Amino acid sequence: MRVKILGAAERDLEEGYRFYERQSVGLGSYFLDSVYSDIDSLSYFAGIHPVIFGYYRLLCKRFPFAVYYKILQDEVMVWAVLGCRRNPSWIREKVMKD
């Protein structure tokens, strides 16, 4: 299955990159590598994750982030990549807005 990352999710990834790069030089790149690896796994495992707020939610393996996605026809659409340490009402509002 083909995986497409939408613009809002790309911006989420950039924000996560900047956050971790401020913590330690090189950590932002490791963050991106790890999360993109999790996203790539959706080409095989899309649809097995629990549905939260109307989206499938993949929890990332190495960082406290979640990938929210939908399956439309034969394509996985990544809508958001959000930190799990955020307020749940903020996450709901962010996901439901898109």
Question: What can you see in these coordinates?
Answer:
With about 100 residues, the chain is of the alpha+beta class. It has a single domain (about 1-95), classed as RelE-like (YaeB-like fold), CATH 3.30.2310.20. The protein is built from 4 helices and 5 strands, in the order βαααββββα. The protein has helices at about 5-25, 25-40, 40-45, 90-95, and strands at about 1-5, 50, 55-60, 65-70, 75-85. It has a 5-stranded mixed beta sheet, with helices on both faces. A hairpin with a 5-residue loop joins β3 and β4 (about 65-70). α1 (about 5-25) packs antiparallel against α2 (about 25-40). The radius of gyration is 13 Å and the shape is globular. The protein starts with a strand and ends with a helix. The mean pLDDT is about 95.
Low-confidence stretches: none
CATH level-1 class: Alpha Beta
Give the termini separation.
23 Å
The overall pLDDT average reads 95
Structural class determined from secondary elements: alpha+beta
Largest sheet: 5 strands, mixed
Q: What letter string, H or E per element, gives the SSE order?
A: EHHHEEEEH
CATH topology: YaeB-like fold
Going across the major beta sheet, what is the strand order?
A: 1-5-4-3-2
Instruction: Return the domain count.
Output: 1
CATH architecture: 2-Layer Sandwich
Strand content: 25-35%
The dominant shape is globular
Portion of residues within helices: 40-55%
Number of helical regions = 4
Number of strands: 5
CATH superfamily: RelE-like
What is the radius of gyration?
A: 13 Å
